[in-house]
Amino acid sequence: MKNSITAEKLFDAVSDIDPADVEDFVRYDEKQPEVRAKAERPVLKMIGGIAACIVLFGGLSVGLKLLVSRTDPEGPGTTSTEADNTVETNEIQVTKHVYKNEAPYAKLKKYEFAPEEQSVADRLYDEMIKEYPEFADIPREKLWESLATGEAGEYAWFGFCIGEIGTDYCCNYNNFDYGIQEYNDYLNGWKISGEEFRQFVDLQLSQTVNDAILEMLRKNVRAYAEKTGMQIVRWADRDPDDILERVGFHYDENGLYVQSVTLTDPVEPSAVSGHIYAAVGVEINGDTITLNEYSASSEPIFTTDKYEYSFTPNSSATELFAPYAKPEKTEFSADQRETVDRAYNEIIEKYPDFGKIPREMLLEEIYSADNNTNVLFRFCLGGVPTQYICSYSHNIGVSVSNCWISGEEFKPFTDWQIPEHSMGEIRSMLAKQTLLIMKAEKLDTGSFDRDKLVIYWSVDDDGQLYANSEYIASVTDETEKQFGCEGHAHVFNKVSVTISGNTITLREYPATAS
Amino acid sequence: MDNTMIIFKAGPITDERSGLMDLLSDEEINRLFFDRDEKAIAETQRKYGAYLQKIARDMTDDRRDAEECVNDVYLHAWNSIPPNRPDSLKAYLTALVRRAAADVFRKEGRDKRIPKKLYSPLDELEEVIPDGAYEALDGRILSQIIKSFVSSLPERRKYIFISRYYVNRDVGEIAKKLQVSRSTVAKELAQIRSGLKQRLYSEGYNV
Fold this sequence. Notes:
The structure holds 2 protein chains of 2 kinds. Chain A has helices at residues 4-15, 19-31, 115-131, 181-187, 207-228, 317-321, 334-350, 352-355, 420-440; strands spanning 43-45, 54-56, 68-70, 80-82, 94-100, 143-150, 153-162, 165-174, 189-193, 231-232, 245-252, 255-265, 275-285, 288-297, 362-369, 372-381, 384-395, 400-406, 454-459, 465-474, 488-500, 503-508, 512-513. By secondary structure, chain A is of the alpha+beta class. Chain A folds into 5 domains: 1-32, no CATH class; 36-104 and 214-305, no CATH class; 115-200, no CATH class; 334-413; 420-513. In chain A, a hairpin with a 5-residue loop joins strand 19 (454-459) and strand 20. The radius of gyration of chain A is 27 Å and the shape is globular. Chain A starts with a helix and ends with a strand. By secondary structure, chain B is mainly alpha-helical. Chain B has 2 domains: 3-105, Orthogonal Bundle (Rna Polymerase Sigma Factor, Chain: A), CATH 1.10.1740; 116-202, Butyryl-CoA Dehydrogenase, subunit A, domain 3. Chain B has 10 helices and no strands. Chain B has helices at 3-9, 26-34, 39-60, 63-80, 89-105, 119-126, 139-152, 155-166, 171-178, 182-202. In chain B, helix 2 crosses helix 3 (39-60), helix 3 (39-60) crosses helix 5 (89-105) and helix 9 crosses helix 10. The interface between A and B is large, with 56 and 74 residues.
């Protein structure tokens, strides 16, 4: 735009169009469906943090189109129905609720930092305000704050919340040294997103409305799970009501809405999806708030590719940063521990890059045979061992130790931290595709045990990382195909895993049985 | 009449899952306006409040400005019906929102300008104005050219033009409404702009 005068001239010129043409517009507009849920690649947003994720399901994404029925907020007689598929479970119903937005207003339950953490948070908050002065307009009590600090750098997250619910309006700081130049360049410094929420910074959300939104989401997720036989994933140490992931306000061409996703375990015979989405549209009109309660679906109710960030403010900072999947630690005797520690020190002296891996990400093993004491350190990604292994061998007779290393193709991934939720997604995808091929090949799906899915990592020649799975499936009387092994088939599957910036992208593939 | 009071008293507060009261027809609402019955505002808000909020937000990119716009619309409607008796109340109110948005931008002491969100569609329109024609192009003449050009467009193109440049919807929303891809809408918008450019040339603005 050349200048504001030009803008005003054009604005005025367009404003003068014939009222009859505006009538034509309104008539045509009323003929169009009010809401149309896309059946394209569903886009999920993962919890914020160092690895705030967007999970994209490509590959075999089922091409379901949704049956959408919505009562137009403008009044009766304008209900629009779009039916271009017959998937009954995806019919979305909308129910309107009208509330008065009044006190008491919902207040964010902020995480309480330790004093030393608080001073870091305060310093970074001040830095953020210098970088983005407009963020100072937001009362700090409305910001969900999280923090991670360490020798490798600092990370801070300030996210604007409406009531107790997060929005896309977030400012985060990251100067962690991940050892990968491109990654560091991407992350270094402040990033902001979701500035379209600026118009809501003064908005107070009634506690009643806040609670109603969350309860509607939970209620619809449970109803959908019951209807379809999907099993909501139960997380250890979580309240049974804590079933909503990535609950967040979004504001786009669909208006203002809250959407959540819930992970499910695939269960035969309804192993159609590992997710249940729920949404509530929010219309604010003076002191009146209308909530449009959408029935849940296995596909996103609203899709948007606008944002990379979303977060769940009811997670504490500890929950946010702690849930990276880690290997289980082996318990050693005091003597064994001493040997393992000595081996570790020798190894990192010889292979300093291996020493950069946080030790909590290493699976440690020790065994002895023929006067040899062997110690293995396996780098684990998402809690699953890779082939990046440092070995130590000490021959008591020779009293000389040896160290060697293998699987260095996994070196580029040693800075990655995959949240447990993402690992849950990966397992769900692998299990889902495994079940689908088992069903197609008439293998014994009834005895399917997700825990018996063997998962391992691989890297192809292009450096692409895959989570692979193998499952031994029993044949049944109805199995027609002859498999190489008697009585069972080996089902293989993979999911590609890509991390770019703070986004994790997963792509699922069809499984094979042999 | 205390407009603010009317506006905030309006609208049923109900927590019922369904069974909202039936909405009045435009003719019935017009009758209330003509009878100078304040229920006219309440019924207008009940029927078109959400729609007006949405387009006001699209036009102003600010929640408070949008609310102010919508309040102004109710006031303008109250003051202008009668004598006007719009066949399509929704179209009439849409035009009032546009006018109210312009008023909000230029309110004295507010230092308001066209919001940046509107720059994107206006930028697109600016492309059609031949270089150097700005000075020669009087605002009123430009209005006339655009007005007659829009009237000449077929129904769908008119819809796309007004969606984009009058109520400031983004391309994605128009695409969603028309159930086509964004690129289809973008292409049609480019063709519409090209037509407008030719119209300007034919009117002699080819400096």
